[in-house]
Write a structure and sequence with these properties.
The protein is of the alpha+beta class. It has a single domain (18-150), classed as Nucleoside Triphosphate Pyrophosphohydrolase, CATH 3.90.79. 18% of the residues lie in helices and 34% in strands.
Length: 159
């Protein structure tokens, strides 16, 4: 596991109970990107998830997710078509003694060509139905529900 060293201006949430995070689902055509978290990640290693990051440096949700997409996947500004933020929610996890304040975001992209960094060990472009076949991060189903409430299934590319 990599040791965390905060950069100047960055908040260290290691011992803080309430933690704001962005959880981003990428959509390319009718498929959605999920990544398997590295064994080196402190929280939820080897679980499948969207692209996520701590809101720990004063940037807006959209600024943070654009930085995460570049850092974790090699995506550039011109690869992004649209960004849609859903309503945030809280998820309590006693395993880590954390209340995650999750900000779900859907990003439509122009390409499915990505380059994983150390934070993920694998990736898959899947349908929303296929997501159920993976060992996803606790609370991930609520991210999907926030982004694709009843009635938006067609917009999601089918389910």
């Amino acid at each position: 596991m990599r040791e965390f060293h905060p950069k100047p201006g960055q908040i260290d949430f290691t011992h803080i109970k309430r933690v704001p995070v962005v959880n981003c689902i990428l959509r390319y055509q009718a498929k959605f990107l999920i990544v398997q978290r590295s064994v080196e990640i402190k929280f939820y290693p080897e679980y499948w998830n969207g692209i996520s990051g701590f809101l720990d440096d004063g940037r807006s949700i959209e600024e943070k997710l654009r930085a995460e997409l570049n850092e974790e996947l090699g995506l550039r500004e011109q690869d992004i078509i649209t960004v849609h933020q859903a309503e945030s929610f809280e998820y309590d996890d006693p395993r880590y003694n954390k209340t995650w304040i999750i900000h779900p975001v859907l990003v439509d992209v122009r390409t499915d060509a990505i380059r994983l960094d150390w934070e993920a060990r694998d990736s898959r472009w899947v349908t929303l139905e296929e997501v159920k076949e993976y060992n996803t991060l606790p609370g991930f189903e609520k991210v999907l529900q926030a982004l694709f409430p009843a009635g938006m299934v067609e917009e999601a590319g089918g389910m």
